[in-house]
């Protein structure tokens, strides 16, 4: 386990970014988000790196947002939450816009914002035991910042169901939805298939890959532009400090059913 909550390993032209907070199921907080942004910047600035693997240590890929962080932010102002959400938006944007190919290797649960990390990667492989959940509405929040990326990966129709129901779904469903490309039996095969993709990438022109990534972004409909990013940041900041946002988080921490406004 790393004191920083992550590890960055660079070897043989490949960067491996490892979420490493197994004691909290690799949940991320504001510090880890900022550190991951710096790590991605370091990778982007190293011309020797040809691909990035995003993976994790421990039983789960990531539980999403750290509840202690969310509890702290709920007590701050909307403007503070806007600035905080902007950092998460920057992490997703930077991962999505990396000039080199990115591969998510998912083992275990990927909940909330972690689904956004998977969606931002160019390719994703998951083990059979992996589970996914867009759980934000369950605690009175919204998957605002990650929504452009997840909708882009899964499609609007599927996103409508799983954003609004917060139902977990299995790895094979994630493949069916387009969130992951492949499902493998276990962690060993996960690494094996990840390295296979890396081997394929290393055979290709770095410049052509870079330009092709730009091409994909340009031609894909529904561009994730600054206006959309600002909208998602403002939305989550407002929801975090709202009555239902506060109630949902309190109920979750107190292990009780939330009382939503308007319920009889």
Automatic annotation (TrEMBL):
Pfam short name (any one): ECH_1
Keyword DNA repair on entry: no
Molecular-function GO term, any one: isomerase activity
Keywords, in A-Z order: Isomerase
Gene Ontology biological-process entries: isoprenoid catabolic process
Sequence similarity: Belongs to the enoyl-CoA hydratase/isomerase family.
Protein's UniProt name: Enoyl-CoA hydratase/isomerase family protein
Native organism: Bermanella marisrubri
